[in-house]
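S.,

As promised, the magnesium ion run. Input:
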Amino acid sequence: MLSIKNLHKQFGDLVVLDGIDLNVETGKVVVVIGPSGSGKTTLLRCLNVLETPNKGELQINNKVLDFSKKVTKKNIQAFRKQTGMVFQTYNLFPHKTAIENVMEGPVIVQNIPKQEARNKARQLLEKVGLGDKIDYYPYQLSGGQQQRVGIARALAMEPEVMLFDEPTSALDPELIGEVLQVMKELAEEGMTMVVVTHEMGFARDVADEVIFMEGGHIIERGHPADMFSRPSNSRTKEFLNLLSE
Amino acid sequence: MFPLSNLIIASAINMERYLDIFQSSFFPLLEGALARTIPLTLIAFSIGLMLAVITALFRLSGIKALEIIARIYISIIRGTPLLVQLYIIFFGLGSVGIEIDPFPAAIIGFSLNTGAYASEIIRAAIQSIPKGQWEASYSISMSYGQALRRIIIPQATRVSIPPLSNSFISLVKDTSLASTIMVTEMFRKSQEIVATTYEPLLLYTEAALLYWTICFLLSLGQDAIEKHLNRYVQT
Ligand SMILES: Nc1ncnc2c1ncn2[C@@H]1O[C@H](COP(=O)(O)OP(=O)(O)O)[C@@H](O)[C@H]1O
Ligand SMILES: [Mg+2]
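Predicted complex:
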């Protein structure tokens, strides 16, 4: 289980996360929505410890990071290993082929023998539908294909929780479906996921819970069907109306 | 007409003499290049590159003391003439009892010089790699060192090959300055031959041609490396 307690993050004087509390049961999918600048990316980055929160506590299974105390590099590493991050802009390693991108973590970080890592990477790429593209460099792949390599790269580290930061927002419309399909399959296999996305169809089909963020707060949370049909908060309602326009 | 035909006859005689001197000086010059100029360049460039990477990492470390050390080093080397640096290392240190042989003294001087200039190239190249590459590395639990070695440096290398090739080619030519601290590299050899033949135009032109040949071969090498490293970028 993933648990976030009273998470605070500010950049200088700008408070970006102002006391976030969230629990995600193992195997559940939480979709995060909210206007630009509301702190969605920062929340995911804190979970991957790419940002260090100013206050609060993160827990995944038995690994805890308490930011009111001093956290060590080692603790951060141990925590980070449990989360896999998928970036809005893919951030693939351009000098490595698709399969090398996926193998990199297992070989370099986990010291898995190359051949074994290669086999596993091939399986993962097949799983995301890229079995025939394993030796392509990122520049030779479409955005949707690159993002699927990004997903495979994160999965190769066998994380407990997968984090997706608007994984389809940089894609041409016709490429969005293939990425969402992979994510849906992951969810069906029981992966715990926190997904920032404005793909309402995906949220409706896949999410167990939707949370609406604004100004560094969680304003509303609920089951997607309930929240989309009768949002209780007026800000949520406005935002959903904007999205459906 | 008289002076012209004289000149032609004189030239014909000279031509023969030129060819003789060219022939007899070619192998000594080549030897100077193979035994001194090229080894000096290769060794100094290798050590210089290591210094450069360390200096660049110091500058990017975010640790004030290391940054200041790097800045002072770069500032001193860039702010003083290479010739003066060589004189200090060889004659200067020699005069206070720190006697270094000409060749190692030249290696020290050229390495320090290359280290300072190349560190700025490498720093700029590292900084040109998007932040997302670091973050993607960290997100798969790489350490700083792993990210640097596996992800950042390989990409920075591609960016820095053209300017580093410039440094390398400059270094080949700059090693002629080692002649002033008694390294019998190619240029000093040509000076020695001029002293006995009194043909400065011929000998120095010959040396120039050899430098040019070396640099031309190096630029072919640069092309090959660039082609290899560009395999993963869209053309
Ligand atoms: N590294 C940073 N330094 C300063 N401000 C930042 C930084 N990262 C994000 N912010 C600010 O934090 C706020 C929230 O950003 P973000 O989490 O990216 O929001 P969202 O993903 O919901 O659009 C924005 O105002 C943004 O400008
Ligand atoms: Mg964002």
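Residues A 40-41, 166 surround magnesium ion (ligand 2) (CB under 6 Å). Chain B has eight helices and no strands.

- D.
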